[in-house]
Design brief:
Elements lengths: L2 E4 L6 H5 L5 E4 L3 E4 L2 H6 L2 E6 L4 E8 L4 E8 L5 H5 L7 E5 L3 E2 L4 E2 L12 E3 L2 E2 L8 E3 L1 H7 L3 E4 L3 H11 L2 E7 L16 H5 L5 E3 L5 E5 L5 H8 L4 E5 L12 E4 L10 H10 L6 E4 L1 H10 L3 E17 L5 E12 L8 E7 L5 E6 L4 E4 L14 H12 L1
Parallel strand pairs: 6-7, 7-10, 8-11, 10-13, 16-17, 16-18, 18-19, 19-24
Antiparallel strand pairs: 1-2, 2-3, 4-5, 4-14, 5-13, 6-14, 9-12, 15-17, 20-21, 20-22, 22-23, 23-24
Helix pairs in contact: 8-9
């Protein structure tokens, strides 16, 4: 591979004004802009794990420090949707795919109103982006949302560390600042309460009414329900819907330890005394398991990707799924009357449970995708069919 740098005189006035001071010619035909001046002025930053392991890189996004649980995700695309997923609340995200930012950031739609990650770690940040829908760079978006990022990190080494040890607490420390002595574990907070809506609202029209419990809901869940012709009442995580009229109950995804959402679990227990359809996704699956009497546990490094293989128990079908969670239902504690529905083909963890007789079922993955495969969106159709028949 042959590289040669073109001189400053070949640049346009606009390029010079943005700090680009050279071009790189790759293999005699493809041009890449190289921001030499930016590189000279960039600030250093560190990611420091709770055991003292330190990786040094360069700051982008907001020039600040932050703390959180350091996790990794393996998706190659879809970062605008992933970063706005409320399930990432309290977490510093490591992207294993090396190049991030090359297609910028669109106007939307996103999965929530704001970026939810605490911080971002990438190997190679693309300063120049190109996409028809892009309105700004990832760097600009992170600055708007006051989220710090680091690039130039050996993300392979960092990911191997997290895989071997498990997810760890950590902190991003900007040049000139000192690390904090103690890092708060976000899983000890009720993160669901932090990301849930505060007031109920109604969307869509239809003869059947769904109560959607927002525990940190991705917006595409609401879109998937509304486009199937039902009225959806979206309610806060601790809302008591048991004294109201509805045809189906839906429990959304969300962040953190499901045991923190005690009021949600208690309301679910009451709802399960009835016979109306209930469907849970991601955290919603864990909450349904707890309400049924099962136990949950924390996975070593979680499932955060767009290619998790899930086998439907009793069949030979395996679906590729999008996932973002750090806890799961422990299979050995699934109570009598309930059964395993889906199982992870990689580690054997529970990916779905359902009641043997009642219309109660849940999946640990995201059938609404965004980002990722849409192979399991048909589960929304099955659920709505159950609601219409009830």
């Amino acid at each position: 591979m042959c590289y040669s740098i073109w001189d400053y005189g070949t640049l346009t006035q606009k390029e010079r004004s943005t700090g680009i001071t050279g071009r790189i010619l790759l293999n005699g035909g493809f041009f890449f802009k190289y921001r030499i001046e930016v590189m000279k002025k960039r600030k250093t930053a560190r990611i420091i794990l709770s055991d003292g392991t330190t990786f040094e890189g360069f700051s982008f996004g907001t020039a600040g420090s932050t703390t959180g649980e350091v996790v990794f995700a393996t998706g190659m695309v879809g970062y605008p949707e992933a970063f706005t997923d409320p399930s990432f609340k309290g977490q510093i995200l490591v992207m294993t795919y090396p190049m991030v930012g090359n297609y910028g950031v669109p106007k939307g739609p996103f999965e929530s109103k704001h970026i939810q990650i605490q911080g971002l770690i990438v190997q190679d940040y693309s300063f120049d982006y190109s996409h028809a829908d892009a309105t700004r760079s990832l760097d600009e978006w992170l600055k708007e949302e006051k989220v710090p990022g680091i690039y130039g990190i050996d993300t392979r080494a960092l990911t191997k560390k997290l895989r071997e040890h498990g997810v760890m607490l950590g902190q991003i420390v900007i040049e000139g600042k000192q690390p904090v002595k103690e890092i708060e574990d976000p899983n000890e907070r009720n993160l669901v309460a932090e990301v849930s809506i505060k007031r109920a609202s109604t969307t869509g029209k239809g003869k059947k009414k769904i109560v959607l419990v927002d525990c940190g809901m991705k917006e595409n869940i609401l879109r998937c329900l509304v486009k199937r012709g039902v009225e959806v009442k979206r309610v806060p995580w601790n809302y008591d819907y048991n004294n109201e009229e509805w045809d189906g109950l839906f429990i959304s995804n969300g962040p953190g330890d499901p045991m923190m959402a005690k009021e949600t679990i208690e309301h679910l227990r009451v709802a399960m005394e009835g016979k109306k359809p209930i469907f849970g996704i991601c955290l919603g699956s864990q909450l349904m398991g707890l309400a049924a009497g099962a136990k949950t546990y924390k996975l070593k490094y979680g499932h955060r990707s767009q290619n998790q293989p899930c086998i439907e128990v009793g069949t030979e079908r395996c679906y590729l799924t999008t996932q973002n969670h750090g806890f799961a239902v422990r299979e050995s504690t699934i109570p009598s009357g309930w059964k395993l529905w889906f199982k992870n083909a990689n580690d054997g963890s529970v990916e779905g449970i359902k009641h043997s007789k009642m219309p109660f079922w849940s999946v640990q993955f995201h059938p609404e995708a965004t980002p990722g495969p849409e192979d399991t969106e048909f589960l929304f159709d099955r659920y709505i069919d159950l609601v219409k028949k009830s």
